[in-house]
Specification:
Radius of gyration: 20 Å
Order of helices and strands: HHHHH
Helix content: over 70%
Strand content: under 5%
Length: about 190
Amino acid sequence: MISNDSISAIGRAAHDVGVGALIGGNLFARVGMHPALRQVSDARERGSATNTAWRRYGAVNALALAAVLVGWGGARLDEASARMLSRRERKLALAKDGAVVAVAITGLAASAAGMRFARMEPQGRVPLADGSTPAAEASTAERRSKRFLNAVGAANLVSAIVLAGVNAALSQAGFRRPPVRRLLRRRY
């Protein structure tokens, strides 16, 4: 049988890997893939490549978001419940609650907007100047949709970075509490 500590460690690891995957995928697209797509000569091929890549990474994003939600949700039921935390940790846990909700909302919104954007043309061939910028021949609706998708994607990236920062602060707060107080807090 797996111990509670092992289950907690697995949940925390999954949560942290999920946050990393959300940040990493978003940064890779913005800094690497989207600008590199300028080298594809056809605007509609750029759109198809962008939408295909995001559709494939969507499975990673979905698993990552599930890991974040399940990992933190499980922790909040026990080891990160208010009764187990110091005053400082309770404040950080509430901040983490907000960051997790923001990551979930912006992540789901980006996913829905991305799927909608990709369906605007057959095979996702919305004309793009690069992975982030609509081409001149894109329709008004396509340009508007891409602007919204870029904005909600940026909000998701910022939310995930904030979540990573709150995670670090919460972990540090736990380490700063003397081990005896942590033990007594759990027993009473």
